[in-house]
Amino acid sequence: MVRIWFNHWFSTAYNIMSMIKQDNPDFYIIGSNENRLSVLSSVCDEWYVEPGLKGNDYVDFCLDFCREHSVNVFMPRREMLSVSRRKSDFEAAGVKVMVDDYEIVDILNYKDRAYKELAQMGVSSIPEYRIVTTPAGFEGAYEELSRKYREICIKFVHDEGGKSYRLIDNSRKGYAALFKKQNTRMTYDAIYEALSERSEFSPLMVMPNLSGDEISVDCLNTSGGLIMLPRIKNASRVERLSFREDILSKTREIYDAVKLECPCNIQFKYLDDVPYFLEVNTRMSGGVQMACLACGVNIPSIAVNKLLGIEKSWKISMEERAVTHVEVPVLL
Hints:
alpha/beta, Rossmann fold, 6-stranded antiparallel beta sheet, 5-stranded parallel beta sheet, 11 helices
């Protein structure tokens, strides 16, 4: 029996676990989370509550957990970078870890380093950007870029899920702003005021706002070739699988540079019909199940079996299809 452990993941890992068990009913899923009532508990064969540890202390906990529970495959989410740094410790304990080598994961988890390194490797789709750490630096970067581009946005270098993304919109003030949904838009003055609360802040990326389609490509490199499932995302829940050649070629270009072996998600965004690279998430995305359903390819199952030395055959349905998801009640 193959025993697979998912540590503290986001709730959409429910779908990843279900897809693995659907294709491999004899695989045994162990889950853990700080939240005792996480929905993931309902799809796991065993369930545990995690301690509130960080860094090396947490990785030590993970190693002990793997030994205690005879884990064969560890699929880390929490402290993935720290786990990657000590992947050899897990391998020495007989545990296969679904994360790429630390040297490349470390680069790709920081947007400024990822942009710089990929540009040096010859990747052609890097957008123009500035990295700033002071209010004065932000002011200068904004003035420079706003002379060249219609819209400017910001986000912190170390971010996840676009939480810090803000579009600078100077129409979002005065009486008219009362009739507009604010969401992720802020005026330049409001951002400058917020940043000015610190004389120096975490590295912030200032760049043109890429206002076209967002493309999320779920990927896995296999002996049978590179799986690439591009989803066009918008503000609705409906996404569309579209195999645009410009996106496929840009994805291959990035893979040629970084040579990832574990599942990942590569994001692009268009500006004036040109696709620009946004980021590489060195894990499966929260929407991988939608891409897999539309294309008839089970990335989670193929990835686990690959880690175990088993090559599963696959064939992508290249038909352009729309896909969405609905919420369903789950009893905990």
